[in-house]
């Protein structure tokens, strides 16, 4: 079957085009402690009932995580791609902040964390 030559490349420059499956959303999450000046180094919070386990349980309440990327640095950064998400950046940020100051078995503080809805970007920024 020949490829048609009369198709549109994109609907909008600067947004993510999805050529397969349901719409997806991308969230850039920064886990920040209550003092507002410290990010949470999540590289040691990967086990059962630790911070990221509890964070994923919160995120999964309103959608399916397709991909995630945890920054390999003390940045508190986590990128998540979801399908059929019921979250907006504001509602997800409220839910994460609502997890409080004693998250997981190590009692980590995520009470001033931030969430930004982004688009797909394939680089290291």
Short description:
With 125 residues, this protein is an alpha+beta fold.
Q: How are the strands of the biggest sheet laid out side by side?
A: 2-3-1-4
Q: State the major sheet.
A: 4 strands, antiparallel
Number of helices: 2
The domain tally reads 1
Structural class: alpha+beta
Shape: elongated
H and E order: EHEEHE
Note poorly predicted spans: none
- Cα end-to-end separation: 39 Å
**Rounded average pLDDT:** 85
User: Approximately how much beta-strand content do the residues carry?
Assistant: 15-25%
Instruction: Report Rg.
Output: 17 Å
β-strand number: 4
Helix percent reads 10-25%
Descriptive overview:
This protein has one domain (28-118). It has two helices and four strands. The chain has helices at residues 51-59, 89-98, and strands at residues 24-30, 64-70, 77-83, 114-118. A four-stranded antiparallel β-sheet has the order 2-3-1-4.
Give the helix/strand layout.
Layout: E1 24-30, H1 51-59, E2 64-70, E3 77-83, H2 89-98, E4 114-118
Antiparallel strand pairs: 1-3, 1-4, 2-3
């Amino acid at each position: 079957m020949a490829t048609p030559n009369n198709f549109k490349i994109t609907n909008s420059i600067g947004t993510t085009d999805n050529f397969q499956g349901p719409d997806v959303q991308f969230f850039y999450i920064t886990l920040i402690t209550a003092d507002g000046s410290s990010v949470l180094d999540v590289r040691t919070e990967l086990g059962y009932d630790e911070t990221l386990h509890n964070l994923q349980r919160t995120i999964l309440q309103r959608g399916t995580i397709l991909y995630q990327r945890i920054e390999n640095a003390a940045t508190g950064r986590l990128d998540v791609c979801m399908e059929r998400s019921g979250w907006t950046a504001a509602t997800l940020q409220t839910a994460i902040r609502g997890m409080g100051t004693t998250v997981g078995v190590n009692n980590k503080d995520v009470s001033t964390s931030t969430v930004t809805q982004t688009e797909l970007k394939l680089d290291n920024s």
